[in-house]
From TrEMBL:
InterPro entries in alphabetical order: Diguanylate_Cyclase, GGDEF_dom, Nucleotide_cyclase, Rev_trsase/Diguanyl_cyclase
Gene3D superfamilies: 3.30.70.270
Zinc-finger as UniProt keyword: no
Keywords noted in UniProt: Membrane, Transmembrane, Transmembrane helix
Protein name, as recorded: Diguanylate cyclase/phosphodiesterase (GGDEF & EAL domains)
A GO term from the CC aspect: plasma membrane
């Protein structure tokens, strides 16, 4: 969770306290060395107000279970990303990943274990991407990687890196954990987020059908 709200609230309150202390000193002869008890109280309330603001913003942008971005944030930021790609004549790639047989994992090991696995998957995704990329929880056990300035080869490299780490996690937990994935590239495959997702979904299900 970012500290933007808390930092902003404290800066505003400290500035207000300094201005009031200077005014009181210059016009009311109030000593500058006096302990600012009221100011400390106001700082506490400003911090709590900023903290609440940060929590609201976090919940509006992040998935509470995995702390990845949520679908709402992706829909909000995606037009900006595409505009950047257009301005620089660059490609953007995305990959959708679906956890295989996740219902079986939940039924066999319980929902708490299932939630733990989702958190572990999200942590692996966040360490597998580049600094410019983002990860979102797209559905119950579906995740989305968005990679600006990336072609099909780049996004597949990211997915392969994640799958290698996922294999290690599967062995560590002694649970069969795997994902099916599909990729799409803007503007080659589609020019709208829904169409890109549909294209990636189709690739993912084609891959699943070939494995059956």
């Amino acid at each position: 969770m970012k500290y933007t709200g808390r930092i902003t609230a404290l800066i505003i309150m400290i500035t207000a306290i300094v201005v009031m202390r200077l005014y009181a000193y210059m016009y009311l002869k109030y000593p500058l060395t006096a302990f600012p008890m009221i100011g400390v109280i106001f700082l506490f309330f400003a911090f709590k107000a900023g903290e609440n603001c940060d929590k609201v913003r976090f919940l509006s942008e992040k998935d509470s279970l995995t702390e990845c971005h949520n679908r709402r944030f992706v829909n909000k930021i995606f037009p900006t990303l595409l505009a950047q790609m257009n301005n620089k004549n660059e490609e953007l790639s995305l990959a959708i990943l679906d956890c295989d047989n996740f219902k079986t994992i939940n039924d066999t090991y319980g929902h708490n274990r299932g939630d733990f696995i989702l958190r572990e998957i999200s942590a692996l995704l966040l360490t597998s991407i580049r600094k410019s990329d983002m990860v979102a929880r797209w559905g119950g056990d579906e995740f989305l990687i968005i990679a600006p300035y990336a072609d099909r080869k780049d996004i597949k490299a990211i997915v392969n890196r994640f799958e290698n780490e996922l294999l290690k996690l599967s062995k560590k937990l002694q649970i069969d954990i795997s994902v099916s994935s599909g990729c799409a590239t803007y503007p080659r495959d589609a020019k709208k987020i829904d169409d890109l997702i549909h294209f990636a979904d189709s690739n993912m299900y084609d891959g699943k059908s070939k494995r059956i």
